[in-house]
Design brief:
heterotrimer, A alpha/beta (about 325), B alpha+beta (about 180), C mainly alpha (about 80), A: about 325 residues, alpha/beta, Peroxisomal Thiolase, Chain A, domain 1, 2 domains, eleven-stranded mixed beta sheet, about 30% helix, globular, B: about 180 residues, alpha+beta, two-stranded antiparallel sheet, 6 helices
Protein backbone atom coordinates (compact mmCIF):
# COMPACT_ATOMS: atom_id res chain seq x y z
CA UNK A 1 0.00 0.00 0.00
CA UNK A 2 1.09 3.56 -0.73
CA UNK A 3 0.29 6.49 1.58
CA UNK A 4 0.60 10.24 1.26
CA UNK A 5 3.20 11.56 3.71
CA UNK A 6 2.94 15.20 2.70
CA UNK A 7 1.79 17.53 -0.06
CA UNK A 8 2.00 21.09 -1.26
CA UNK A 9 0.71 23.43 -3.96
CA UNK A 10 2.25 26.69 -5.13
CA UNK A 11 0.02 28.59 -7.54
CA UNK A 12 -0.68 32.26 -8.31
CA UNK A 13 -3.42 31.94 -5.67
CA UNK A 14 -1.07 31.14 -2.84
CA UNK A 15 1.52 28.89 -1.24
CA UNK A 16 0.57 25.66 0.48
CA UNK A 17 -2.23 23.18 -0.15
CA UNK A 18 -4.50 24.68 2.49
CA UNK A 19 -4.13 28.24 1.14
CA UNK A 20 -5.07 26.99 -2.32
CA UNK A 21 -8.03 25.00 -0.99
CA UNK A 22 -9.27 28.13 0.75
CA UNK A 23 -8.95 30.07 -2.51
CA UNK A 24 -11.11 27.43 -4.19
CA UNK A 25 -13.70 27.61 -1.41
CA UNK A 26 -13.74 31.40 -1.52
CA UNK A 27 -14.46 31.28 -5.25
CA UNK A 28 -11.22 33.03 -6.16
CA UNK A 29 -9.53 32.50 -9.51
CA UNK A 30 -5.99 33.03 -10.76
CA UNK A 31 -7.24 33.75 -14.28
CA UNK A 32 -6.39 37.18 -15.73
CA UNK A 33 -6.09 38.80 -19.13
CA UNK A 34 -2.59 39.16 -20.58
CA UNK A 35 -1.63 41.29 -23.55
CA UNK A 36 2.16 41.68 -23.47
CA UNK A 37 3.48 38.87 -21.26
CA UNK A 38 5.04 37.05 -24.24
CA UNK A 39 6.10 38.51 -27.61
CA UNK A 40 3.88 38.09 -30.72
CA UNK A 41 1.11 36.00 -29.12
CA UNK A 42 -2.47 37.25 -29.26
CA UNK A 43 -3.99 38.49 -25.97
CA UNK A 44 -4.96 35.54 -23.77
CA UNK A 45 -6.49 34.64 -20.42
CA UNK A 46 -4.41 32.52 -18.03
CA UNK A 47 -3.39 31.94 -14.42
CA UNK A 48 0.24 33.09 -14.21
CA UNK A 49 2.55 34.13 -11.39
CA UNK A 50 2.78 37.94 -11.16
CA UNK A 51 6.56 37.63 -11.04
CA UNK A 52 7.74 35.12 -13.65
CA UNK A 53 9.14 32.04 -11.89
CA UNK A 54 12.04 29.77 -12.76
CA UNK A 55 11.27 26.07 -13.06
CA UNK A 56 13.88 24.53 -10.74
CA UNK A 57 13.55 26.95 -7.77
CA UNK A 58 9.76 26.65 -7.97
CA UNK A 59 9.94 22.84 -7.83
CA UNK A 60 12.42 22.96 -4.93
CA UNK A 61 10.19 25.33 -2.99
CA UNK A 62 7.22 23.04 -3.63
CA UNK A 63 9.11 20.03 -2.24
CA UNK A 64 10.25 22.04 0.78
CA UNK A 65 6.66 23.11 1.50
CA UNK A 66 5.56 19.47 1.44
CA UNK A 67 8.05 18.79 4.19
CA UNK A 68 7.54 15.53 6.01
CA UNK A 69 9.52 13.18 8.17
CA UNK A 70 10.60 11.32 5.02
CA UNK A 71 14.37 11.35 4.45
CA UNK A 72 14.75 12.93 0.99
CA UNK A 73 18.49 12.18 0.92
CA UNK A 74 17.96 8.45 1.44
CA UNK A 75 18.77 5.87 -1.23
CA UNK A 76 15.27 4.55 -0.41
CA UNK A 77 13.72 7.73 -1.84
CA UNK A 78 13.18 8.42 -5.56
CA UNK A 79 12.19 11.70 -7.24
CA UNK A 80 9.51 11.49 -9.97
CA UNK A 81 9.01 14.70 -11.96
CA UNK A 82 5.87 15.33 -14.01
CA UNK A 83 6.26 18.00 -16.67
CA UNK A 84 5.62 18.63 -20.36
CA UNK A 85 8.11 21.38 -21.19
CA UNK A 86 10.36 21.37 -18.09
CA UNK A 87 12.93 24.13 -17.80
CA UNK A 88 12.93 25.82 -21.20
CA UNK A 89 12.33 22.51 -23.10
CA UNK A 90 14.91 20.58 -21.02
CA UNK A 91 13.29 17.86 -18.89
CA UNK A 92 16.08 15.64 -17.63
CA UNK A 93 18.64 18.17 -16.34
CA UNK A 94 16.22 20.07 -14.06
CA UNK A 95 14.98 16.78 -12.58
CA UNK A 96 18.55 15.87 -11.72
CA UNK A 97 19.23 19.34 -10.29
CA UNK A 98 16.16 19.09 -8.03
CA UNK A 99 17.05 15.60 -6.75
CA UNK A 100 20.66 16.63 -6.10
CA UNK A 101 19.52 19.76 -4.28
CA UNK A 102 17.99 17.49 -1.65
CA UNK A 103 21.06 15.27 -1.56
CA UNK A 104 19.18 12.40 -3.18
CA UNK A 105 21.57 9.78 -4.60
CA UNK A 106 19.15 8.18 -7.09
CA UNK A 107 18.62 9.17 -10.70
CA UNK A 108 15.20 10.82 -10.95
CA UNK A 109 12.45 9.73 -13.34
CA UNK A 110 10.63 12.21 -15.57
CA UNK A 111 7.12 11.28 -16.69
CA UNK A 112 6.22 13.09 -19.92
CA UNK A 113 2.82 11.76 -20.92
CA UNK A 114 1.29 15.06 -22.05
CA UNK A 115 -1.52 16.42 -19.88
CA UNK A 116 -1.94 13.11 -18.02
CA UNK A 117 1.64 13.26 -16.66
CA UNK A 118 0.68 14.23 -13.09
CA UNK A 119 -1.61 11.21 -12.67
CA UNK A 120 0.80 8.90 -14.53
CA UNK A 121 3.64 10.03 -12.22
CA UNK A 122 1.58 8.91 -9.19
CA UNK A 123 1.00 5.54 -10.88
CA UNK A 124 4.71 5.13 -11.71
CA UNK A 125 5.69 6.01 -8.13
CA UNK A 126 3.15 3.55 -6.71
CA UNK A 127 4.47 0.74 -8.90
CA UNK A 128 8.09 1.38 -7.87
CA UNK A 129 7.06 1.41 -4.18
CA UNK A 130 4.78 -1.64 -4.49
CA UNK A 131 7.62 -3.55 -6.18
CA UNK A 132 9.83 -2.80 -3.18
CA UNK A 133 12.40 -0.86 -5.21
CA UNK A 134 12.05 2.24 -2.99
CA UNK A 135 10.25 3.12 0.25
CA UNK A 136 9.43 6.73 -0.59
CA UNK A 137 8.73 8.71 -3.76
CA UNK A 138 8.60 12.48 -4.18
CA UNK A 139 6.17 13.25 -7.00
CA UNK A 140 6.61 16.81 -8.26
CA UNK A 141 4.42 18.29 -11.00
CA UNK A 142 5.32 21.62 -12.58
CA UNK A 143 5.04 23.64 -15.78
CA UNK A 144 5.86 27.28 -16.49
CA UNK A 145 4.03 29.05 -19.31
CA UNK A 146 5.91 30.51 -22.26
CA UNK A 147 5.55 31.97 -25.72
CA UNK A 148 6.17 28.42 -26.98
CA UNK A 149 3.15 26.91 -25.21
CA UNK A 150 0.71 29.81 -25.59
CA UNK A 151 1.44 30.21 -29.33
CA UNK A 152 0.88 26.49 -29.89
CA UNK A 153 -2.47 26.38 -28.11
CA UNK A 154 -3.50 29.53 -29.97
CA UNK A 155 -2.57 27.89 -33.27
CA UNK A 156 -4.75 24.99 -32.14
CA UNK A 157 -7.63 27.45 -31.57
CA UNK A 158 -7.95 25.81 -28.15
CA UNK A 159 -7.78 28.89 -25.90
CA UNK A 160 -10.81 30.70 -24.53
CA UNK A 161 -10.46 34.50 -24.50
CA UNK A 162 -12.48 34.51 -21.27
CA UNK A 163 -12.33 32.43 -18.06
CA UNK A 164 -13.13 28.85 -19.09
CA UNK A 165 -16.50 27.16 -18.48
CA UNK A 166 -16.02 23.38 -18.13
CA UNK A 167 -19.04 21.34 -19.31
CA UNK A 168 -21.02 24.51 -20.13
CA UNK A 169 -22.85 24.60 -23.48
CA UNK A 170 -21.24 28.04 -23.88
CA UNK A 171 -17.67 26.87 -23.34
CA UNK A 172 -15.11 28.35 -25.72
CA UNK A 173 -11.90 26.54 -24.84
CA UNK A 174 -9.26 26.29 -22.16
CA UNK A 175 -7.07 28.67 -20.17
CA UNK A 176 -3.45 27.84 -19.43
CA UNK A 177 -2.00 28.04 -15.95
CA UNK A 178 1.24 27.62 -14.06
CA UNK A 179 1.85 25.95 -10.73
CA UNK A 180 4.01 23.46 -8.87
CA UNK A 181 2.57 20.70 -6.72
CA UNK A 182 4.19 17.90 -4.74
CA UNK A 183 2.97 14.67 -3.16
CA UNK A 184 5.36 12.63 -1.05
CA UNK A 185 4.37 8.96 -1.19
CA UNK A 186 5.52 6.32 1.25
CA UNK A 187 5.05 2.64 1.99
CA UNK A 188 5.02 3.37 5.73
CA UNK A 189 1.40 3.17 6.89
CA UNK A 190 -0.12 6.39 8.14
CA UNK A 191 -3.52 7.98 8.57
CA UNK A 192 -4.93 10.08 5.82
CA UNK A 193 -4.80 9.30 2.13
CA UNK A 194 -3.97 6.00 0.48
CA UNK A 195 -3.31 5.54 -3.25
CA UNK A 196 -5.15 2.33 -4.03
CA UNK A 197 -5.02 1.91 -7.78
CA UNK A 198 -4.32 3.62 -11.08
CA UNK A 199 -4.84 2.97 -14.77
CA UNK A 200 -3.58 4.30 -18.11
CA UNK A 201 -5.24 3.62 -21.49
CA UNK A 202 -4.83 4.97 -25.00
CA UNK A 203 -7.80 5.78 -27.26
CA UNK A 204 -5.85 4.54 -30.30
CA UNK A 205 -7.90 7.04 -32.26
CA UNK A 206 -6.15 10.35 -32.99
CA UNK A 207 -3.07 12.18 -31.66
CA UNK A 208 -4.92 15.39 -30.79
CA UNK A 209 -8.69 14.83 -31.11
CA UNK A 210 -10.35 13.11 -28.13
CA UNK A 211 -12.14 9.83 -28.83
CA UNK A 212 -15.83 10.28 -29.66
CA UNK A 213 -16.69 7.22 -27.54
CA UNK A 214 -14.44 8.18 -24.61
CA UNK A 215 -12.95 4.69 -24.88
CA UNK A 216 -9.61 5.20 -23.13
CA UNK A 217 -11.06 7.34 -20.34
CA UNK A 218 -13.90 4.83 -19.88
CA UNK A 219 -11.45 1.92 -19.59
CA UNK A 220 -9.45 3.86 -16.98
CA UNK A 221 -12.59 4.59 -14.93
CA UNK A 222 -13.68 0.95 -15.20
CA UNK A 223 -10.28 -0.19 -13.89
CA UNK A 224 -10.16 2.19 -10.91
CA UNK A 225 -13.77 1.39 -9.95
CA UNK A 226 -12.87 -2.26 -9.41
CA UNK A 227 -13.42 -3.24 -5.77
CA UNK A 228 -15.56 -0.25 -4.80
CA UNK A 229 -19.16 0.68 -5.52
CA UNK A 230 -20.10 3.89 -7.27
CA UNK A 231 -21.95 5.05 -4.13
CA UNK A 232 -18.64 5.06 -2.24
CA UNK A 233 -17.06 7.61 -4.61
CA UNK A 234 -17.25 10.97 -2.81
CA UNK A 235 -15.78 13.03 -5.61
CA UNK A 236 -14.69 12.63 -9.22
CA UNK A 237 -11.96 15.04 -10.26
CA UNK A 238 -12.55 15.53 -13.96
CA UNK A 239 -10.11 16.92 -16.52
CA UNK A 240 -12.70 19.53 -17.60
CA UNK A 241 -10.51 21.61 -19.89
CA UNK A 242 -13.61 23.33 -21.34
CA UNK A 243 -12.64 22.58 -24.93
CA UNK A 244 -15.63 21.47 -26.95
CA UNK A 245 -14.37 17.96 -27.61
CA UNK A 246 -12.64 17.11 -24.32
CA UNK A 247 -15.69 17.77 -22.20
CA UNK A 248 -17.99 15.89 -24.59
CA UNK A 249 -15.63 12.92 -24.50
CA UNK A 250 -15.39 12.96 -20.70
CA UNK A 251 -19.16 13.16 -20.33
CA UNK A 252 -19.55 10.03 -22.44
CA UNK A 253 -16.83 8.18 -20.50
CA UNK A 254 -18.37 9.19 -17.14
CA UNK A 255 -21.83 8.05 -18.25
CA UNK A 256 -20.50 4.76 -19.62
CA UNK A 257 -18.79 4.12 -16.27
CA UNK A 258 -22.06 4.78 -14.38
CA UNK A 259 -20.62 7.80 -12.58
CA UNK A 260 -23.04 10.43 -13.89
CA UNK A 261 -24.56 11.03 -10.44
CA UNK A 262 -21.25 11.44 -8.61
CA UNK A 263 -20.22 14.91 -7.46
CA UNK A 264 -17.48 16.26 -9.73
CA UNK A 265 -14.67 18.71 -9.13
CA UNK A 266 -13.54 20.78 -12.14
CA UNK A 267 -10.72 23.10 -11.13
CA UNK A 268 -9.55 24.68 -14.41
CA UNK A 269 -11.63 27.89 -13.84
CA UNK A 270 -9.56 28.41 -10.66
CA UNK A 271 -6.03 27.37 -11.66
CA UNK A 272 -6.18 27.17 -15.46
CA UNK A 273 -4.72 24.10 -17.15
CA UNK A 274 -1.44 23.67 -15.28
CA UNK A 275 -0.28 20.85 -17.59
CA UNK A 276 2.43 18.80 -15.83
CA UNK A 277 1.26 20.09 -12.45
CA UNK A 278 -2.45 19.46 -13.10
CA UNK A 279 -2.61 15.79 -12.05
CA UNK A 280 -0.81 16.40 -8.76
CA UNK A 281 -2.45 19.73 -7.91
CA UNK A 282 -5.98 18.60 -8.73
CA UNK A 283 -5.57 15.30 -6.85
CA UNK A 284 -4.52 17.20 -3.71
CA UNK A 285 -7.43 19.66 -3.94
CA UNK A 286 -9.93 16.84 -4.59
CA UNK A 287 -8.66 14.84 -1.62
CA UNK A 288 -8.89 17.90 0.61
CA UNK A 289 -12.36 18.70 -0.73
CA UNK A 290 -13.51 15.14 -0.02
CA UNK A 291 -12.08 15.05 3.50
CA UNK A 292 -12.68 18.60 4.65
CA UNK A 293 -15.74 19.87 2.82
CA UNK A 294 -18.07 17.40 1.29
CA UNK A 295 -17.72 14.06 2.98
CA UNK A 296 -20.19 12.88 5.57
CA UNK A 297 -18.51 9.50 5.94
CA UNK A 298 -15.26 9.02 7.76
CA UNK A 299 -13.83 7.14 4.81
CA UNK A 300 -14.42 8.13 1.22
CA UNK A 301 -12.89 7.51 -2.15
CA UNK A 302 -11.94 9.99 -4.81
CA UNK A 303 -11.10 9.40 -8.45
CA UNK A 304 -8.91 11.79 -10.43
CA UNK A 305 -8.99 11.47 -14.23
CA UNK A 306 -7.06 13.22 -17.02
CA UNK A 307 -6.70 12.97 -20.79
CA UNK A 308 -4.09 14.35 -23.14
CA UNK A 309 -2.48 14.66 -26.55
CA UNK A 310 -1.25 11.37 -27.92
CA UNK A 311 -4.65 9.85 -27.09
CA UNK A 312 -3.59 9.00 -23.55
CA UNK A 313 -5.97 8.83 -20.57
CA UNK A 314 -5.22 8.12 -16.92
CA UNK A 315 -7.05 7.78 -13.60
CA UNK A 316 -6.17 7.10 -9.97
CA UNK A 317 -8.29 6.14 -6.97
CA UNK A 318 -7.38 7.41 -3.51
CA UNK A 319 -8.96 6.35 -0.21
CA UNK A 320 -9.27 9.43 1.98
CA UNK A 321 -9.82 9.43 5.73
CA UNK B 1 7.33 -12.93 -12.27
CA UNK B 2 9.18 -13.97 -15.38
CA UNK B 3 9.62 -12.00 -18.53
CA UNK B 4 10.74 -13.10 -21.95
CA UNK B 5 12.05 -10.98 -24.81
CA UNK B 6 10.63 -12.37 -28.06
CA UNK B 7 11.96 -9.86 -30.59
CA UNK B 8 14.26 -6.88 -30.65
CA UNK B 9 15.11 -4.15 -33.14
CA UNK B 10 17.85 -1.55 -33.10
CA UNK B 11 17.91 1.41 -35.48
CA UNK B 12 20.75 3.94 -35.78
CA UNK B 13 21.24 6.52 -38.57
CA UNK B 14 23.33 3.98 -40.48
CA UNK B 15 22.06 0.54 -39.45
CA UNK B 16 19.04 -1.63 -38.72
CA UNK B 17 19.46 -4.81 -36.68
CA UNK B 18 16.49 -7.12 -36.23
CA UNK B 19 16.87 -9.99 -33.74
CA UNK B 20 20.63 -9.75 -34.07
CA UNK B 21 20.63 -9.82 -37.88
CA UNK B 22 21.51 -6.68 -39.86
CA UNK B 23 18.99 -5.48 -42.46
CA UNK B 24 20.56 -3.97 -45.59
CA UNK B 25 19.72 -0.30 -46.16
CA UNK B 26 20.85 2.09 -48.90
CA UNK B 27 20.21 5.48 -47.32
CA UNK B 28 21.21 6.94 -43.97
CA UNK B 29 19.57 9.20 -41.39
CA UNK B 30 16.08 10.52 -42.02
CA UNK B 31 16.16 9.24 -45.61
CA UNK B 32 16.73 5.74 -44.30
CA UNK B 33 13.54 5.99 -42.21
CA UNK B 34 11.63 6.87 -45.41
CA UNK B 35 13.32 3.95 -47.18
CA UNK B 36 12.18 1.60 -44.40
CA UNK B 37 8.66 3.06 -44.57
CA UNK B 38 8.47 2.35 -48.32
CA UNK B 39 9.76 -1.19 -47.83
CA UNK B 40 7.68 -2.23 -44.80
CA UNK B 41 4.55 -0.01 -44.86
CA UNK B 42 3.95 2.08 -47.99
CA UNK B 43 0.23 2.77 -47.52
CA UNK B 44 0.10 5.02 -44.44
CA UNK B 45 0.59 8.62 -45.68
CA UNK B 46 0.25 9.96 -42.11
CA UNK B 47 3.86 8.79 -41.73
CA UNK B 48 5.01 11.88 -43.62
CA UNK B 49 3.25 14.17 -41.17
CA UNK B 50 5.16 12.72 -38.22
CA UNK B 51 8.28 14.30 -36.74
CA UNK B 52 11.53 12.32 -36.80
CA UNK B 53 11.06 10.88 -33.30
CA UNK B 54 7.60 9.56 -34.19
CA UNK B 55 8.82 8.21 -37.55
CA UNK B 56 11.66 6.41 -35.77
CA UNK B 57 9.41 4.79 -33.15
CA UNK B 58 6.68 4.07 -35.68
CA UNK B 59 8.97 2.27 -38.12
CA UNK B 60 10.83 0.36 -35.37
CA UNK B 61 7.49 -0.80 -33.92
CA UNK B 62 6.23 -1.73 -37.38
CA UNK B 63 9.18 -3.97 -38.18
CA UNK B 64 9.44 -5.65 -34.78
CA UNK B 65 5.67 -6.22 -34.43
CA UNK B 66 5.61 -7.80 -37.91
CA UNK B 67 8.07 -10.38 -36.60
CA UNK B 68 5.64 -11.14 -33.82
CA UNK B 69 2.63 -11.58 -36.08
CA UNK B 70 -0.79 -11.23 -34.43
CA UNK B 71 -0.06 -10.02 -30.92
CA UNK B 72 -2.19 -7.05 -30.23
CA UNK B 73 -5.75 -7.88 -29.30
CA UNK B 74 -7.92 -7.68 -26.25
CA UNK B 75 -6.97 -11.20 -25.15
CA UNK B 76 -3.37 -10.07 -24.79
CA UNK B 77 -3.43 -6.56 -23.34
CA UNK B 78 -0.49 -4.67 -24.75
CA UNK B 79 1.36 -1.69 -23.32
CA UNK B 80 3.75 0.69 -25.04
CA UNK B 81 6.42 2.13 -22.73
CA UNK B 82 9.17 4.19 -24.33
CA UNK B 83 11.86 6.50 -23.01
CA UNK B 84 14.66 8.80 -24.08
CA UNK B 85 16.97 11.50 -22.74
CA UNK B 86 16.05 14.60 -24.76
CA UNK B 87 12.23 14.40 -24.92
CA UNK B 88 10.98 16.08 -28.12
CA UNK B 89 13.88 18.55 -28.49
CA UNK B 90 14.41 18.06 -32.24
CA UNK B 91 10.81 18.88 -33.05
CA UNK B 92 10.68 21.59 -30.35
CA UNK B 93 13.49 23.31 -32.25
CA UNK B 94 11.58 23.01 -35.54
CA UNK B 95 8.48 24.50 -33.91
CA UNK B 96 10.51 27.38 -32.42
CA UNK B 97 11.51 28.34 -35.98
CA UNK B 98 7.82 28.98 -36.77
CA UNK B 99 7.42 31.50 -33.92
CA UNK B 100 10.57 33.52 -34.51
CA UNK B 101 10.52 37.33 -34.47
CA UNK B 102 9.25 38.82 -37.71
CA UNK B 103 8.12 35.44 -39.00
CA UNK B 104 5.50 34.41 -36.45
CA UNK B 105 3.27 31.70 -37.92
CA UNK B 106 3.04 28.95 -35.27
CA UNK B 107 2.48 25.60 -36.97
CA UNK B 108 -0.20 23.43 -35.32
CA UNK B 109 1.10 20.37 -37.18
CA UNK B 110 4.54 20.86 -35.63
CA UNK B 111 3.19 21.89 -32.20
CA UNK B 112 1.33 18.62 -31.71
CA UNK B 113 4.65 16.74 -31.94
CA UNK B 114 6.31 18.88 -29.24
CA UNK B 115 5.50 16.13 -26.74
CA UNK B 116 7.59 12.95 -26.66
CA UNK B 117 4.62 10.69 -25.90
CA UNK B 118 3.04 11.38 -29.30
CA UNK B 119 5.18 8.57 -30.74
CA UNK B 120 3.46 6.11 -28.37
CA UNK B 121 0.10 7.43 -29.58
CA UNK B 122 1.08 6.97 -33.24
CA UNK B 123 2.06 3.34 -32.58
CA UNK B 124 -1.16 2.75 -30.59
CA UNK B 125 -3.30 4.12 -33.45
CA UNK B 126 -1.50 2.07 -36.11
CA UNK B 127 -1.77 -1.20 -34.17
CA UNK B 128 -5.12 -0.54 -32.40
CA UNK B 129 -3.52 -0.83 -28.97
CA UNK B 130 -5.83 0.51 -26.24
CA UNK B 131 -3.62 -0.50 -23.35
CA UNK B 132 -1.21 1.72 -21.47
CA UNK B 133 1.03 4.17 -23.33
CA UNK B 134 3.76 5.85 -21.29
CA UNK B 135 6.80 7.96 -22.06
CA UNK B 136 9.67 8.60 -19.66
CA UNK B 137 12.63 10.96 -19.88
CA UNK B 138 15.61 9.23 -18.29
CA UNK B 139 19.37 9.36 -18.03
CA UNK B 140 19.97 6.14 -19.95
CA UNK B 141 18.20 2.98 -21.21
CA UNK B 142 19.14 0.91 -18.12
CA UNK B 143 16.99 3.21 -15.99
CA UNK B 144 13.91 1.98 -17.88
CA UNK B 145 14.30 -1.65 -16.73
CA UNK B 146 13.00 -1.28 -13.15
CA UNK B 147 10.11 0.83 -14.46
CA UNK B 148 9.09 -1.92 -16.89
CA UNK B 149 9.57 -4.62 -14.27
CA UNK B 150 7.39 -2.78 -11.77
CA UNK B 151 4.73 -2.32 -14.48
CA UNK B 152 4.75 -6.07 -15.13
CA UNK B 153 4.35 -6.75 -11.40
CA UNK B 154 1.02 -4.92 -11.09
CA UNK B 155 -2.28 -6.76 -10.76
CA UNK B 156 -3.60 -5.55 -14.11
CA UNK B 157 -0.23 -5.98 -15.77
CA UNK B 158 -0.14 -6.17 -19.57
CA UNK B 159 0.62 -9.50 -21.23
CA UNK B 160 2.89 -7.87 -23.78
CA UNK B 161 4.98 -4.71 -23.58
CA UNK B 162 6.56 -2.97 -26.53
CA UNK B 163 9.31 -1.09 -24.78
CA UNK B 164 12.67 0.55 -25.18
CA UNK B 165 14.72 3.60 -25.99
CA UNK B 166 13.58 6.00 -28.69
CA UNK B 167 15.86 9.02 -28.96
CA UNK B 168 16.19 11.79 -31.52
CA UNK B 169 18.26 14.86 -30.63
CA UNK B 170 18.76 16.21 -34.16
CA UNK B 171 17.42 15.44 -37.64
CA UNK B 172 20.03 12.79 -38.40
CA UNK B 173 21.04 11.91 -34.85
CA UNK B 174 18.77 9.21 -33.49
CA UNK B 175 18.71 5.71 -32.11
CA UNK B 176 16.00 3.28 -31.15
CA UNK B 177 16.19 -0.07 -29.42
CA UNK B 178 12.77 -1.63 -28.96
CA UNK B 179 11.85 -5.02 -27.53
CA UNK B 180 8.70 -7.05 -27.32
CA UNK B 181 8.52 -8.40 -23.78
CA UNK B 182 6.12 -11.14 -22.69
CA UNK B 183 4.86 -11.34 -19.14
CA UNK B 184 4.94 -15.05 -18.32
CA UNK C 1 -7.65 32.31 -60.97
CA UNK C 2 -6.17 29.18 -62.57
CA UNK C 3 -2.71 30.38 -61.59
CA UNK C 4 -3.82 30.91 -58.00
CA UNK C 5 -5.36 27.42 -57.94
CA UNK C 6 -2.11 25.83 -59.12
CA UNK C 7 -0.07 27.83 -56.61
CA UNK C 8 -2.47 26.90 -53.82
CA UNK C 9 -2.24 23.19 -54.63
CA UNK C 10 1.54 23.34 -54.36
CA UNK C 11 1.29 25.21 -51.06
CA UNK C 12 -1.18 22.65 -49.66
CA UNK C 13 1.09 19.75 -50.63
CA UNK C 14 4.01 21.50 -48.97
CA UNK C 15 2.16 22.56 -45.80
CA UNK C 16 0.50 19.18 -45.24
CA UNK C 17 3.53 17.04 -46.18
CA UNK C 18 1.89 15.09 -49.00
CA UNK C 19 5.11 13.32 -49.88
CA UNK C 20 4.05 11.40 -52.98
CA UNK C 21 1.71 13.95 -54.50
CA UNK C 22 1.94 16.59 -57.24
CA UNK C 23 -0.50 19.47 -57.90
CA UNK C 24 -1.96 17.42 -60.78
CA UNK C 25 -3.08 14.78 -58.25
CA UNK C 26 -5.42 17.21 -56.48
CA UNK C 27 -8.77 17.77 -58.18
CA UNK C 28 -9.81 21.40 -57.99
CA UNK C 29 -13.42 20.64 -57.05
CA UNK C 30 -12.93 17.49 -54.97
CA UNK C 31 -13.73 17.70 -51.24
CA UNK C 32 -10.65 18.36 -49.11
CA UNK C 33 -12.05 16.61 -46.04
CA UNK C 34 -13.76 13.24 -45.69
CA UNK C 35 -13.82 11.31 -48.95
CA UNK C 36 -11.48 13.50 -51.01
CA UNK C 37 -8.00 14.21 -49.66
CA UNK C 38 -9.04 12.86 -46.25
CA UNK C 39 -7.70 15.78 -44.24
CA UNK C 40 -8.12 15.81 -40.45
CA UNK C 41 -8.54 18.47 -37.74
CA UNK C 42 -4.81 19.28 -37.52
CA UNK C 43 -4.69 19.72 -41.31
CA UNK C 44 -7.60 22.19 -41.02
CA UNK C 45 -5.63 24.23 -38.47
CA UNK C 46 -2.57 24.11 -40.71
CA UNK C 47 -4.65 25.42 -43.64
CA UNK C 48 -5.83 28.31 -41.43
CA UNK C 49 -2.16 29.13 -40.75
CA UNK C 50 -1.36 28.83 -44.48
CA UNK C 51 -4.06 31.41 -45.28
CA UNK C 52 -2.48 33.80 -42.76
CA UNK C 53 1.13 33.20 -43.78
CA UNK C 54 0.74 33.28 -47.56
CA UNK C 55 -2.25 35.57 -48.07
CA UNK C 56 -2.59 37.62 -44.87
CA UNK C 57 -6.05 36.23 -44.15
CA UNK C 58 -6.87 35.68 -40.47
CA UNK C 59 -9.65 33.17 -39.77
CA UNK C 60 -10.49 33.47 -36.08
CA UNK C 61 -13.35 30.99 -36.02
CA UNK C 62 -12.38 27.47 -37.13
CA UNK C 63 -16.04 26.75 -37.87
CA UNK C 64 -16.04 29.46 -40.54
CA UNK C 65 -13.35 27.42 -42.26
CA UNK C 66 -15.81 24.67 -43.17
CA UNK C 67 -17.33 26.54 -46.11
CA UNK C 68 -13.97 27.94 -47.24
CA UNK C 69 -12.13 24.61 -47.11
CA UNK C 70 -14.70 22.64 -49.14
CA UNK C 71 -12.38 22.35 -52.10
CA UNK C 72 -9.31 24.00 -53.58
CA UNK C 73 -11.63 26.12 -55.72
CA UNK C 74 -13.64 27.47 -52.76
CA UNK C 75 -10.36 28.25 -51.00
CA UNK C 76 -9.00 30.08 -54.04
CA UNK C 77 -12.22 32.07 -54.44
CA UNK C 78 -12.09 33.14 -50.81
CA UNK C 79 -8.43 34.09 -51.11
CA UNK C 80 -9.05 36.17 -54.22
CA UNK C 81 -11.71 38.19 -52.40
CA UNK C 82 -9.98 38.60 -49.04
CA UNK C 83 -6.23 38.50 -49.57
CA UNK C 84 -4.15 41.28 -48.05
CA UNK C 85 -0.88 40.12 -49.58
Amino acid sequence: MVYCAGHSIISPLGEGSQANLEAVRAGRSGLKQYTDRFPSVEPFCASLFDTPQSFVPLCIKSVELAVTNVDLASSQTVFVLSTTKGDNLDLWTPAQTIARHFGNPNRPIVVSNACTSGVCAQITAKRLLDAGLYRHAVVVGCDIQSQFIVSGFQAFKALSPEPCLPFSPDRKGLNLGEAAATMVLTTEPRDGWCLETGSIHNDANHISAPSRTGEGAFQCLQDVLEGVSVSEIALLGVHGTATLYNDDMEKIAIQRAGLENVLVSALKPVFGHTMGAAGVLETIICALQATQSYSVNRTSFIIKMLSGFGGVNAAVRWRCE
Amino acid sequence: MEMRVSHEIEITPTSVILDGQPIAVNDTGEKMLVELYRRYVGDYPKFFKMDTLARLGFIAAEIVLKQQGQTCNSQQPTAIILANRSASIKNDTDYLATISDGNYYPSPALFVYTLPNIVTGEIAIRHHIQGETSFYVLDNPEQLEPIVQSTLATRHSPAVILTGWCECSEANMFNAKLQIIWNN
Amino acid sequence: MEQLIEQLKAQIIDALNFEDMTPADIETDAPLFGEGLGLDSIDALELIMLMDREYGIKLADPKAGKAIFQSVRTMAEYIQQHRTK
